[in-house]
Design goal:
A hairpin with a 7-residue loop joins strand 10 and strand 11. By secondary structure, this protein is α/β, with parallel strands linked by helices. Among the domains are: about 180 residues, 3-Layer(aba) Sandwich (Rossmann fold); about 150 residues, no CATH class; about 30 residues, no CATH class. Strands 2-1-4-5-6-7 form a 6-stranded antiparallel β-sheet, covered by helices on one side. It has 18 helices and 15 strands.
Length: about 550
Amino acid sequence: MLSSLCIQNYALIASLQVHFDKGMTVITGETGAGKSIIMGALSLVLGNRADTNILFDKSKKCIVEASFDISTLDLLPFFEANNLDYQNTTVIRREITPAGKSRAFINDTPVTLPLQKEFSSRLLNIHSQHQNLLFQDAKFRTDVVDTFAGIKLQVAEYQNVINKLRKTERDLEELREAQRTRLERQDFLQFVYQELESANLQENEQEDLEQQVDFLTHTETIKANLFQIQQLISESENSALDSLRNAQSLSAAISSYRSDIQELHNRLESSFIDLKDISSEVSSLYDRVDFEPEELERMRERLDLIYNLEQKHHVTTFEQLLEKKNAIGEELDSLTVGEEKMSALDKGCQQLKKEAQQLAQKLHQHRQKAIPALQKLILSNITQLGMPDAQFVIDIQTHEEMNVFGIDSLRFLFSANPGVAPAPLEKVASGGEISRLMLALKASLSDRSVLPTVVFDEIDVGISGEMAGKVASLMRQMSDKHQLIVITHLPQIAAAGTSHYQVFKETADNQVHTQVKLLSNQERTVEIAKMMSGEKWGNATLMAAQELIDH
């Protein structure tokens, strides 16, 4: 139950505090007095967004506090789940700073706006004429039937399963997409690796090939030089070997005279042997050096292959190319297909789908069972509200594809006149009819709803006369079980309240302020008389107003 509402620095309100009791509290006032301002402030408690335009004094922050008696509600688990301090009298506070920063609190504990919104929605429901658009909302229509059927917990269980199913389906699709990507990558790497593998690259191969190509390219020069070397060493007149042999003979003749001459002779002998060995090696090399054009072409082609592979894989050395090949091989080994994980996810999807289908079927059965009684109750309330010939049908259709509501889609069909087939309510009902239908619907759910406080914000548009009295009577019945706060411009509804507040404007310090006053019995009678006849009211109007109150 909403116990009090404290508003500071909001729109035309500098400071205001209103206390609420059980039953039906009515709020009246002239057009423009500020009734909508109070609802706007209350909407901040519900988590609606706001900006600095609502500040009465732009240099100060706006504060809206709503106190609720929650002692009869089972909300302790919510407090525990969100690490909040539980108190039987709980205060929801909202602050808007001059800089536009918004802060929300539950019992002085800072909370996020979504959390404040979730919590306050369990305590308070505001219905305005604009909410008639709710009839077009599939979720609203389904919630109405589910509330009456008392299957909110079953719906939550189904939605938990369907959410798990959707997540598992997304995970499975992501895994399949990742696998497709892996397979594409694997095919590409396999092709690249096979190309490198087919090249049969060997350690130090490029360097060896480059040396051999260089050698074969210059065979003519090499052979010519070897021939000349051979000539100089041993084949020409006065060759090096002949000269060295003569020097060796001369040194032998005198080697016995001194030891150092003997040593020189030994060295000449050793040099002769070495030079003779060199001559033999040169001769052998000369015989082995042949120009092989086919072998040269093969080596050049092999080098071209290596150079192209290096360029293709953006490396500059043969060693880096071998490293690239090894890295590709390792990556290929790591690209294992997640068949087991996909199989587990697919099995999980099938199990969740089966569970969701079973729960959805049960929801369908509960709804089908509840709809006739709900239709009958709504029709009874509609009749009470002056539409005895109206028809109201809840049309339920099933689908193979599951959605957030199960397998059902619901339509509210309505006809105000006999002989006219019911059609979608939002398309055929007038504004006044929709307002009465919404009231009839809420009254029909009053026994099933756990919502302690309902606010009706001028939903009586398009209603007058005898009909207003019937609306007032139905609201009064609802207030026996729910706290009702009703903003109205109709005297019949105002007279049905158990307490009555008047919203008015006053001027102080050259500023216009919105104020709220709890009316005494006498003041209330005068206010309702004004609502009936304007400022020109007399004793007869006063008596009529009192009669409305006493009725």
